[in-house]
Amino acid sequence: MLLEIAVVLVTSVAGLTVATEVGTVPSATFQSVVTSDAPPAFTGPIVGGAGNAIGGANTRAASFGAQTLSTLASLPAENLNQYFESRPTVVDQLLSAQPPAQEVALWWGDLNVDRQTALEIASPQLVGNLEGVPFAIRDTSNRTVLNQTITELTNVINSDIGRGVQQGAYQQLNMLSSISGALENEKSGPERTLVTLDVSGQGRAAIVLGDLADADYVSFLVPGMFFTIENQMSYWVDAAKDLYSQQQMWLEHFESRSPFIRNESVATVAWIGYDTPNLTNVGEIENANQGRDSLAGAILGLQAQRGTDQPYISIVAHSYGSTAALMALSEYDFEVDALALVGSPGSPVQSVSELNVRDGNVFVGEAAWDPIPNSSYFGPDPGSDSYGAKSLGVGGSFDVIMKQPLSKSVGHNEYFQPGSEAMRNFALLSIGRGDLVIPENAPPTERALSMGAPRLDR
User: Fold this and answer.
1) Strand ordering across the sheet containing 204-209
2) What pLDDT sits at residue 58?
3) How many CA atoms lie within 13 A of 30 on its CB side?
4) What pLDDT is attached to residue 79?
5) Are residues 245 and 176 in the same domain?
6) Regions of the chain with pLDDT less than 50
7) Last residue of a domain, one of 106, 130, 154
8) Could you please report the per-residue DSSP string of 125-181?
């Protein structure tokens, strides 16, 4: 059933390894330090992303991550470059077996500025993707990796190396150029930051619109099958931008009508933080496992950074990404404030009560002619009555508050169109106004009147 709705066949981007010089042989002093203090290479099954799923974290992975951070804090700063050069796989291993984000945040905060700067220079890839490191620093580090890799790939393309290698470099460059283009700030739009970056394979990235460090409301947009960085990064950032604009519009609307509402802010995350499936593996669960861990890690990283000033966190998940989000919210020990699922192929749990979503704020939308929601391919349909979720209208309506028509979503891929009922509802539920979400098949006027909508226009 899943294969029947494929409208775009995306060919995976070929990987390209860019050779780097190892540099000089470490000095005897440095060699003795890394031999005695560095953790042994981690060879184990690696827990992805967050590294602390309920049911028991991989002990060796957790130990490896903690020991590596301790080593990085104790080595002489001038030897950090040599440490990473002598252990070319340690960064990938550490990012795959990250310690809890709260521990990383404490570790980073205990480092002096010189040590932090030395680590940024020695391994921007690590600093840019380590959950618990401040987002502004991660953005700077990831942009460094992005720009350096683009330069390296361009040099490969312009060299006389073999045609096959050049073609691989060209494909990889297209992928990274899409990230670079999506990062360009608009004059009237919010600042954009790059808080996740993997330049290998089909790539991974998370681009934030707004300020994660102090936004009152944070929304994660989680994509499903056939989403790749090369082909959909720009589209996904545009969807996040539209959601951001609608959220701000509604907040300003409420603020203008109530003396008790302060000036609130939002941040939206265009998150493609896992390898989304294609035609060859869309019926398998492995990619959802990866998405589960990576999404959980991102949210735990946000919560660790925000400390006592926690934002209202929502997840808007589409298609296969909804299954990954449901797995994260049922298998990890953290909570979000609201969850929206559209075009879902099924849930790993039986009902809303099994999800770590506060106050049961789970909304489900199913568009006409979308065959995926009724497939129950990965478990019960979240839109079924027995699941206990709230209805989220996507079929087109009229907004009696803003006095404007709302377009309908049809099929599997139209939930994120600007001006749609779906986007209007996403915006409201993600700023804590789920009471104003229009349910499917309910007269919008009656729904709005029952919620006291006219009082908002006084």
Assistant:
1) 192-198, 204-209, 266-272, 217-222, 312-318, 338-342, 362-365, 390-391
2) 56
3) 17
4) 96
5) yes
6) 1-57, 446, 449-458
7) 130
8) HHHHH-BTB-HHHHHHHHHHHHHHHHHHHHHHHTSSS-HHHHHHHHHHHHHHHHHHH
Sign of CA dihedral 249, 250, 254, 255: negative
Residue 13 inside a domain? The answer is no
Do 99 and 229 belong to one domain?
no
What is the amino acid identity at position 323? T
pLDDT at 36: 37
Biggest alpha carbon–alpha carbon distance for the chain: 78
Per-residue tokens: 326: 């449901």
Residues 172 and 46 in one domain: no
The reply to whether 69 and 178 lie within a common domain is no
Decide if 171 contacts 162 (C-beta within 8 A).
no
Per the domain annotation, does 371 fall within a domain?
yes
| Segment 210-249, tens digit of pLDDT | 999 999 999 999 999 989 999 999 999 999 999 999 999 9
Predicted pLDDT at 444: 54
Residue 325: its pLDDT value, please? 98
Does some domain include residue 235? yes
According to DSSP, the residues that pair with 266 across neighbouring strands are 217
Residue 159 falls inside a structural domain: no
